[in-house]
Design brief:
Layout lengths: L9 H4 L4 E5 L2 E10 L2 E10 L13 E6 L2 H17 L1 H8 L2
Antiparallel strand pairs: 1-2, 2-3, 3-4
């Protein structure tokens, strides 16, 4: 699970995509432009493949405000998705 007290990636995401994994669940956080608004796009998918090699139907996306609060909300969502779909991540982790 992501510990929000130690999860300080906002300044990194301002310049680069942030990719990581959590026991079979891979995720990416990135800055995205939607018309005139900047948002935080978060994508999750099962291991073992990287983002580019994973079919779109296996990816889940969500957008948040592009701010430190948005990153905290994204961390909550990632933890929620990890718990909600734990069997998927655990079976992917065994591949």
């Amino acid at each position: 699970m992501i510990d929000k007290e130690k999860f300080h990636v906002f300044n990194y995401i301002k310049k680069e995509e942030y990719c990581a994994s959590m026991d079979g669940m891979r995720y990416m956080m990135k800055k995205a432009q939607r018309e005139e608004e900047t948002v935080l796009e978060v994508v999750i998918w099962p291991e073992p493949n990287c983002y580019a090699r994973t079919p779109e139907e296996k990816k889940q996306r969500r957008e948040f405000a592009f701010s430190e609060t948005g990153v905290e909300e994204a961390a909550d969502w990632l933890n929620e998705q990890y718990g909600k779909h734990r069997p998927v991540w655990e079976s992917a982790n065994k591949l």
